[in-house]
Structure formats: C-alpha cells, structure tokens
Amino acid sequence: MKVKVLSRNPDDYVRETTRDIQRVPRNYDPTLHPFEVAREYTRALNATKLEKVFAKPFVAALDGHRDGISCITKHNKSLSTVLSGACDGEVKVWNLPKRQCLRTVQAHEGFVRGICSRFCGTSFFTIGDDKTIKQWNMEAPEYGVREEPLNMILGKTVFTGIDHNQRQATFATCGQSVDIWDEQRSSPIRSFSWGADSFSCVRFNPVETDLLASCASDRSIVLYDTRESAPLRKVVMRLRSNTLCWNPMEAYYFTCANEDYNLYTYDMRYLDLPVIVHKDHVSAVLDVDYSPTGQEFVSASFDRTIRIFPKDKGHSREVYHTKRMQHVICVRWSADSKYVLSGSDEMNIRLWKANASEKLGLV
Amino acid sequence: MAALTPEVLTSNVTHVGKMNKKKPPKRYWEETDEKRPEEEQGTTRRKQNKSTAKVRSSKWKNDETLEKEDPFPGEAPIPKKKLQKFMRGKKYNVHAEANQKVKEAIMSSEAMTEFAQKQAARYDLLLPEDAGFLEGDEDEDTNTISQDDIADAVDITSGSKYFNLHLSQFGPYRLDYSRTGRHLLVGGKKGHVACINWQSKDLMCEMNVMETVNDVKWLHTEAMFAVAQKKWLYIYDSKGVELHCVKKFNDLLRMQFLPYHFLLATTSATGFLQYLDVSIGKEVAAICTKMGRLDVMSQNPHNAVIHLGHSNGTVSLWSPIQKEPLVKMLCHRGAVRSLTVDKTGTYMVTSGLDRKLKVYDIRAFKTLHSCVLPAGASCLSLSQRGLLSAATGDIVQVYQNILGSSPVSKPYMAHRLRGQIWGLAYCPFEDVLGIGHGEGFTSMIVPGAGEPNFDALDTNPFRSSKQRQEWEVKALLEKVQPELICLDPGQLSKVDLVSFEQKHKERIAALGFDPMEKDRFKPRKKTKGRSSAGNIEKIKRKVAYEDQRDEIRQSIEERTEREKELTQKSMEKEDLGNKSTLDRFKKRKYPQQQ
C-alpha cells in the first residue's frame, strides 16, 4: 500500500520572527477565485465613488488685485512664483505656498494685455494698452528705490500678446502684425503679416523653438518660422480662436481655444483636419494651457468654468466652478503638473488641484 | 605570478568577443581595417586581469569564443493543458469593418490577457505541495484498506487526523468546517453545539441550546456561527455568546452560506427560501417556493445559485432576484435525497429514493451517467479535487473519478461507522472527511481529497489575527451585490445585445428609417437617356424579385430538409417497434422508401 496524506509543515507557511513580513503563498487557479467579474466590478464602482467622496479641488484664492485679471504667467525656474496682470495695469508677483503677494508693480496705464517671463527666470515682459513693451527685473528693488523697468519699448500700435523664445534672447509680440524682437533692439527684427488686421495671441513652440503660431482675427491660425521671411501656413476656421497652446511633449500638436465653444487640436504638419475636437463648454473658450506632462490640458471659458480635458479625448474629465468665480479669462497649469491657476473677472486668482481627489502634502 | 609574456600582449587573440565591440566608421585617411582594431586590442588588453590572462590563453584556442550558443533558444514552452486551465473565455475576433481605435483597444487587451495567462501557467511550476494519493498493492483493493492502517502508515500529524468523538447522548450530529478548514462546528439534534479547532483539539465553545438543532453553519470567519434551532435562527459568537435571534427566519431546516456575497440562504419547512445579508443584518429576499418542505439544499460555489431537491424528483435552481426558479430539472423518479455541486460549477451529483446516483453536467443540463446504489445515498459531498463521498445508513463510500464521462464501478474507499450518518463535509485544503452520525463525530482520512496549494489572499489556514482582520475588511469592500447572482457569473462582462436590439428598434420607430441599414442596391447611371426614372425603377424591381426568389428557394430547401429528417426519424421508430406478421396489411402513413 502506498499512501500520502497532505500534511503541511507550519514552518513553511508561518513567518519565523515577528520582524519578518508575513508569508503569502499564491495559487492563481481560476477555480479558487470565483466571481472575478463581479468582484472587479464592485471594486471599480467603490473606487469611483470614493474618488468623488474625496474630491476637494479648491485649494486657495489669491486676493489683492483691484480689477479683473487679464493674464497670468509662471516663473520659468521657480515653482512657487506666479505673475499676474490686471485690467488696471497692475502686475503682482505672488508666492504660492504662503498665498501672499510679494510685489506689486504699476506696469501700464490701461489693461495689461500680456505678460511672459524670460526663459532664465531673471526678468519678465509686459505689454499694455499704452502701446509699450516693458521688461522688469524679477527681483524686487531695494528699499527706497523706485520701481523702474529694465527696458521700455514704445510701439506704434497696441500690442495684444507676447511670448518669449525658450532658448534665445528674442521675443514675439502680436498686435497689428506678428513681430519678432531682439532684446537689445528697440524695433522688431522681423515682422510677419498675412492678411489679417489684428492678432490676438502668439506662442513659441517649446521644443522647436524657432516655430511660432498666432491666432488672427480673420478666424485663422498662422504658423511662422523665425528663420524664414514669410509665414509658413495658415488654417482658417469657422469662428475666431482666442488663444492657443503647444503640447510640450508632442510638440507638433497645438490646441486652440475657439469662440464656437470648442477646442481644436491640430497637427502642424497636417492642418487640413483637426486631430480632435474637444467639446464641452457652453460659451466661448478664452484660454488654454497644457500640463507639463503633455497628457491633459485645461481650458477657461466665458461660461464661468474651467475644464480639464485629456489630450486625446473629445470630452472633459473634470469641471471646476464656484458661485464666486465669474468669467474666467486666463488659466495656467503649474509646472509640477499638480495645480491649476485660474484668473477671473472678479479680481481673484484661484488655485485648484489638477486631480481633485489626490492627497497632496504629508500623508 | 609571472609577468605577462610578450606573446600574450602581441597575439591577435582577443578575450572579448568581436561581436561586442562596435567598430567606428572608417575614415578616409585609413587604408586598411586592421590598424584600428589592433589599437583597440592594445588598450583593452592592458585593462584585463593579469592573473587570469595566462589561464585564459591556455584554455581557449583560436576558434572558440566566450559566447556560447543557447541550445534551447526562445522562451520556455508551456504545456497546452496548463494554458487551458488559465484560459477565461474565447478569443474575441475583431470585426474587419470596425473602427481603428476599437481594433487597437481589442488587440492590446487580448495581448495582455494572453500574457497574463502565460505568466499564471508558468507560476504553476512553483506550487509547493502535491496532492495526496492512496494506491493499493497488486491484488489489494483500496476500499478494503481501513482507516487504522492508513493512520499507522502515515506520519503522526496526519495519523492524528483520524479521530472519533463519542457524543452519543445528544443525537445525530450535523457539522460544518470553516472556510479555512481550521475550525469545526458540530451540532447535535438534541441541542449540543460545540466549536473546536480540530487539528489541535482546542475547544472554542460548547453549549446546549436546549432546543432541537436542525443545522449549524459558520459565517464568514470563525468568529460567528448560525444555528437553525427549532423555532428561529440564532447567531452566536465563537465564545458561545448569543448575538442575535432572528425571528423572521422560522422553522429552518437547512442553511448555506455564500461567502462572497455574505448571504446566509435558509430553507424552511413551510417552503420558504430566505436570504440574510450577515454584513448589514437585513433580509435580502424571501421567496415562497410553493414546493413543499425543503430539506435538501446545496449551493453552486461557482455562481452562488442555490439548488433545492424536492420530493417529486425535481431539482430547482434559485437566485435571490427572482421569485421563480431559474431552472427546474426532473432528476429522479422518486424524491431527491441529497445533492451536491462541484467547485467549478460544471457537475451536479444527485441521489434519490429510486436508489440511483446521477451525475449531471449543469452547464448543459444533461445527464452524464448514472449508477445504482443498493441503498440510496442520504448524504453526498464533493471534495475540492472531485472525490465524491456518499453515505448510506452507517457506511460511507468515497468514489474517485466520478465526474468523468464513464461510470465508476467500485468505490475508492469505504468506512463503517457506529451510528446513522446525518452529515458529511470535506475539510477544505486537507485530506479529511468529517462525518456527523448518531454516535457523535468521526474524522476520516481520504488521501487526495484536499486542494494542496491554497491562495493566501483568498483563504489562508495559517493566517494571523492581523491578516484575518485585513482580509475581512477587504472582503467586505468587495462584497458582491445579490442582484448579480445569475446562472452565468461572467454575464456582466458580456456585451448586452438584447438592450442594443431594443434600442435599435426604438430608434427606427422614432426616425422612421434604419440608420444602420446597409446600402440598398443602386443601379448604375447610364448615358443617352437610358437612366430615366422609369428604367431605374424597373432595374430595382428586377433585383428585388431576384432577391426574393433566392430567399424563397432557401426557405423551401430548409423546409424540405427538415421534413425529410422527420420522416426518417419516424420510419426508424416504426422499424424499432414491435413487428408482427400482419404489418404488411397495415396502412402506412408515410410513403415507403424504395
């Protein structure tokens, strides 16, 4: 007679000391794990519900401006600094962790139309309704010294947008035409125009730093190369685009925020058809900014909401709104991809979490 | 160690394989290829280990290199049976006309499923334990081997798994093992309830509830158990403290616990099937079965459907969402005495008053085979590895390989007890069969009954109290809702074609036309006035007539085929029936075959 009875040695299944971790022998036989589909469904349902339970996206409101906010920009090197320009010509520099305003500069008379920081992070440029471009030092002046711009350029016409090259000491402005400026010169080194009478926004490509795109008032988007003498390409849409933003990871894609309540992502090599149409807003979309990961972008709209869209989906995954927040004019995604800043009509800049149920800070 | 000999330095043999070095591109000023590699050889050789250089030069000859060829290139092959074991569902064939994104999504998910299947099949090699077995000598029958012999032949711990508890005072005993197999609950008909850790013979609690006990069942852990007493359902703590007396559940006869749904299913003498959710303490469903006294009950562990056996020989399948049984099967000529279902949910074994033991394929609702027992089995139980134990009177017989397609002639093991058998249960993950009878409780060794390798994340017999607490929380979070209990447990993962069809119909009704219809035939446009409206209509009609003709022809063909089959069958039946000499004068209903 040959016989063997199952007998397990507890030494093989129980841990030796209390300082060890527990032993977990596995057997992946499907008959030992029944109801896989139902249990997985229950787990997914619970996870979604808990995500909504823990969703508290609003972090803080930065108060202090005395007029609506027209533009925001990030500091290129520091995560805790943010600059904002208001409709009364004031520019404020904020410290985000302390939620305090570090410095206020009366930059222009009239609106501050655009603000951008230099790639090295030592200075920033502002343009205003008084047809000037001013360059300011990022550090506050010493006690007693008056606030003076490092450089001031007078233009002939009103400028509506500004953006700085990511590598070289050149910047571009748009107004009646798109001008490329060298920081040392007081007149543009090159001027592009293609039929439109005004441009609303200009953006340099973050990867291919010689390319730029602009939104024109004749409902078109024009692409330029600073090395060429004429604009490259143009795509005309049904309604005007307000702003556009390049995808920092896939730099051949850019997304434009259109007046027809949609956002369009185009491939710059093939402008005939948009890659994706993002639909969810119920009023004109005013601003768009990509996350540094390039996977999502945030859009601000006249309908008092900001929406976060995945880059390849047609609808938004998240919408943020408050009773207090009125028409959102500008929006930026922070450089650590965790926060979103929105500047709105009622003089507040709001700080939101990009993932509403994420636990940020000490656990 | 002697210094490097000059031959080693200047010889052309390299110790590093030539394939490892990337040759730099040839420059226009270089004449030959040999100059560059020589320079590299010089630099690399200086860096080599001086002590082993001499050894190496003697070992390798000019032709051999350091790189050896792999005699079994590629991945290790996995046996098909193992792969089959981990397959869940068929491969999904993508429609050729589907959207590009849909195709990509399906292909990537199929690739991931295949990878997971292969990895799981590979892990099977690492399972630590093997199943038990019992093989007799050449002329010895395994069912003649007694338990004492087995207990003597194996080691002490396994031998101690055969024991008897003499409890002759309090009536025949019913029993239940907890899910981990560590704890045993016995309940005598005259009120004696005890729970013990049967391996260490540690008594957890013992009491007499002073009432008739019909059935006992562990709840999800060894902390609570339910006792179906004469009038109501009582829930006790493992220390014997009465926690709840559920008066809504009265006259209970049998109970089953559905572990993944935290449901206690109970049948009563009045014909009610009731479900109690033990995590929230609410009655989920109370179904009036209208089939009389329900005292034969089993659960299908694969889909949590309750099987009830009735006195008219039928077995009905119940789910808490429906008031009617899901399925009713006629199994036996007399009453059904006992039934059990295997853990994969494929086979059901029933025994009835007509002294037959039948094995069914539950998925197809077909009989596999049936055999006759001299006296019908009053209790049946299937182990984790497919061994069936049948109790008749005071004898227990264990059958092996009964779930295959061929009937089994003789039992694998047999054991005779003192009293009338009242309850049978296999201990999970152990080679032990627990028998509750009129004289107490017996634990019998059945080699090869238990699943050798458990999954610690599912049930871990060696779990500590911390592990048990963590497991309990996770199990409660994953508790499946009773609405998902149906015959096919994976129905949630399938495409809902029925709703799609209904929505499609509603859409057609709303729109007035079918938006998904394929393009109708459009005749070609002809020149010179030949494609006038009348001509086009004529061509369309012709094509429509042709299509109609084809359809009619097909349906006629099918009908004739069916009729032929019917006539053939009836002719065969007639031929098989009793023949007499007067047949040739009988009028034939059907034309005779020539």
From TrEMBL, chain A:
The ranges of the WD repeats are 62-104, 278-309, 321-362
Q: Where are the transmembrane segments?
A: none
Q: Does the keyword Repeat apply?
A: yes
Q: Which domain of life is it from?
A: Eukaryota
InterPro entries assigned: WD40/YVTN_repeat-like_dom_sf, WD40_repeat_CS, WD40_repeat_dom_sf, WD40_rpt, WD_repeat_DCAF13/WDSOF1
- What are the UniProt keywords, alphabetically? Repeat, WD repeat
Q: Name one Pfam family in it.
A: WD40
Q: What is this protein called?
A: DDB1- and CUL4-associated factor 13
Task: Provide the species name.
Answer: Cirrhinus molitorella (mud carp)
From TrEMBL, chain B:
Residues annotated as coiled-coil are none
Give the matching PROSITE patterns: WD_REPEATS_2
User: Which keywords does UniProt give here?
Assistant: Nucleus, Phosphoprotein, Repeat, WD repeat
Repeat positions for WD: 329-370
SMART domains given in the database record:
BING4CT, WD40
Subcellular localization, as worded in the UniProt entry: Nucleus, Nucleolus
Q: Which GO terms describe its cellular component?
A: 90S preribosome; small-subunit processome
Q: Does the keyword Repeat apply?
A: yes
Q: What's this protein's function?
A: Scaffold component of the nucleolar structure. Required for localization of DDX21 and NCL to the granular compartment of the nucleolus. Part of the small subunit (SSU) processome, first precursor of the small eukaryotic ribosomal subunit. During the assembly of the SSU processome in the nucleolus, many ribosome biogenesis factors, an RNA chaperone and ribosomal proteins associate with the nascent pre-rRNA and work in concert to generate RNA folding, modifications, rearrangements and cleavage as well as targeted degradation of pre-ribosomal RNA by the RNA exosome.
* Subunit structure, interactors included: Part of the small subunit (SSU) processome, composed of more than 70 proteins and the RNA chaperone small nucleolar RNA (snoRNA) U3. Interacts with DDX21, NCL, NOP2 and EBNA1BP2.
Q: What is this protein called?
A: WD repeat-containing protein 46
Query: Which species is listed as the source?
Result: Cirrhinus molitorella (mud carp)
